[in-house]
Amino acid sequence: MKKVICLIAVALMVGSVAFAAGKMKFTAKDLPGLQGTWEGIVSFGEFDVGTSPMKLEILNDAAPLKAKLTITNIPQGVASRFGVMSGQNVFENDNGAITSQGTIMWASPQGKDFCEIAKGDNKIHFWYFSKGIKGDATLKKKK
Fold first, then answer.
1. Which label site among 1, 8, 79, 142 has the fewest CB atoms less than 10 Å from its CB?
2. Where are the domains of the chain?
3. Are 141 and 134 in contact (CB under 8 A)?
């Protein structure tokens, strides 16, 4: 039984390494193509309050990247945890950088809160961690 469990664990580790190696990464050459408006639906992590439309505007084409994030409808329960008003909220940051993993990350000055994007096929994967809340979204570029 232990041999089977070890075999399964090794197979899972090999599979995860193969998946990570095939992950698409952002490079400096990708930055001009990111500039523009990306839209999708964001989740609020552990809260069972649904989702909200969101828009990520990448405002320039070179590092550090400037971004403006608009979340259309933050529910009251989530808003109080974030320390913002419910409804529409706009967040801006100008320190976006390509990470060693090939993602792009924007962080708060204290480094406790961040949002990050990863490259996908004709989309970007977005996730955040802020005030103990984590969530994610898949965004497509607005034409």
1. 1
2. 25-141
3. no
Q: How far is it, in rounded angstroms, from Cα 135 to Cα 118?
A: 14
| pTM for the structure as a whole | 0.80
CA atoms within 13 A on the CB side of 18: 6
Please report, in tens digits, the pLDDT of each residue of the chain (143 residues total). Answer: 555 454 454 444 444 443 444 468 999 999 999 999 999 999 987 666 779 999 999 999 999 999 999 999 998 888 888 889 999 999 999 999 999 999 999 999 888 899 999 999 899 999 999 888 889 999 999 98
CATH code given to domain 25-141: 2.40.128.20
Instruction: Quickly list DSSP for 57-117.
Output: EE--SSSSEEEEEEEEEE-HHHHHHHTS-SEEEEEEEEEEEE-TTS-EEEE-TTSS-EEEE
